[in-house]
Amino acid sequence: MAYLAGCMEKKSKWSRAWRIVKRTFLVLFIAQFLYIILLKWVDPPITLTQLFSWISGDGLARDYVRYDEMSYNAKLAVIASEDQIFPDHSGFDWKSIEKAMNYNKKKPGRIHGVRGASTISQQVAKNVFLWQGRDWVRKGLEVYFTKMIEWIWGKQRILEVYLNVIEMGRGVFGVEAAAQKYFGKPAISLNRREGAMIAACLPNPKVFTIKPAHPHVVVRSGQIMRQMSNLEGDPDVQRIIQIAKPTVVKKKAV
Description:
Blueprint (H helix, E strand, L loop, with lengths): L1 H37 L9 H9 L4 E2 L9 H11 L11 H13 L13 H10 L6 H17 L2 H11 L6 E2 L1 H9 L8 H9 L14 H17 L3 H7 L13
Parallel strand pairs: 1-2
Helix pairs in contact: 3-9, 3-10, 5-6, 5-7, 9-10
């Protein structure tokens, strides 16, 4: 009897512990879901990458701005540089991912892999919700958050957050901080060359400096400007980078 009572007590403890785990998981799941929804309209207070930059001594310069306060040229430049099929995919560019994996197997240890392996949506998911790294747990969570922001935020909001939180130099986060630091102007005033130079630094902004201009930035920015010209006529790209203008209803003359 004592043995049975002990087994029942252990089973009861495990049952209570399992209920606590399930409730905790449910609370965390609901909390992160509500946080994703909130960020559709509210800017992220801070990211782990920004926090680490501040703690490590690199500094934290940032100034979030609205989508209509960002240069048309900066939006076009990062799409041309980082994710040319951004308007068309649902979060992932599978062909580029496969190509990057094959490239990295052949040439390990390079500063950066094939361009476009990680979409803008994936970079936002990683930078806003997760930590830097290549472990499988983070990769799995990246897939989840990428799909969620694609469904909930939409392309314009994803691009807006990207241009606000991505690192664009040592301790420099977002297009407004980058525009002020490198060109002494607000983000909305960036011209094509300046937007392309900022986009050119993104693979490794701590190495590929804008001021002074790293050789990679000089060469790559010219390539980006040519890609911008090729993409600019795409109606799907225009739909994302342009700000919708309100429809003016004209009154009929009486």
